[in-house]
Amino acid sequence: MDDNSLAALCIVMAVPLAAIIGGIWLSARKAAAKAAAPSAEDQQQMQSLLETARRMEQRIGYLERVLDNEAPGWRGRSEAR
C-alpha cells in the first residue's frame, strides 16, 4: 500500500468516525439540556419559594422600621459586635 492509498484510507475511516463522535456529542448536549430544564413541579416550588422570600422581605422591612422607631441606633450596636 502506497502513501496515497494509506492517506485515502485514513480519510475514509476518519469521516464516519467524526460523524459518530459528533452525533454522540449532540445527543449528550440534548440530554443535558433536557435534564437541566425544570419540571412543572420544580417551577411551582420555585414560585412558592419566591413568594415566601417576598413575604419575609416585607416582614423584615417592617421589623426594621419598628426597631428604628423603638430603639434608634440598634443597627450600630449590632454591627459593632
Briefly summarize what is shown.
The chain has 81 residues and is an all-alpha fold. The protein contains three helices and no strands. The protein is elongated and about 75 Å long.
Characterization of this structure:
With 81 residues, the chain is mostly helical. The radius of gyration is 31 Å and the shape is elongated. The chain contains three helices and no strands. It has helices at residues 3-36, 40-70, 74-80. The model has no long low-confidence stretch (mean pLDDT 77). It has two domains: 1-37; 38-81. Helices cover 89% and strands 0% of the residues. The longest helix is centred in the N-terminal third of the chain and has 34 residues, at 3-36.
Instruction: Tell me the strand percentage band.
Output: under 5%
What is the first-to-last residue Cα distance? 83 Å
- Percent of residues in helices comes to over 70%
Uncertain regions: pLDDT < 50 for 5+ in a row? none
Give a count of the beta strands, DSSP E runs of length 2 or more.
0
Rg of Cα set: 31 Å
Instruction: Please describe the biggest sheet, giving its number of strands, its sense, and whether it closes into a barrel.
Output: none
> What's the number of domains?
2
Principal-axes shape call: elongated
Would you tell me the structural class of the helices and strands? mainly alpha
Give the H and E element order.
HHH
Count of individual helical segments? 3
- Could you report the average pLDDT, rounded to the nearest whole number? 77
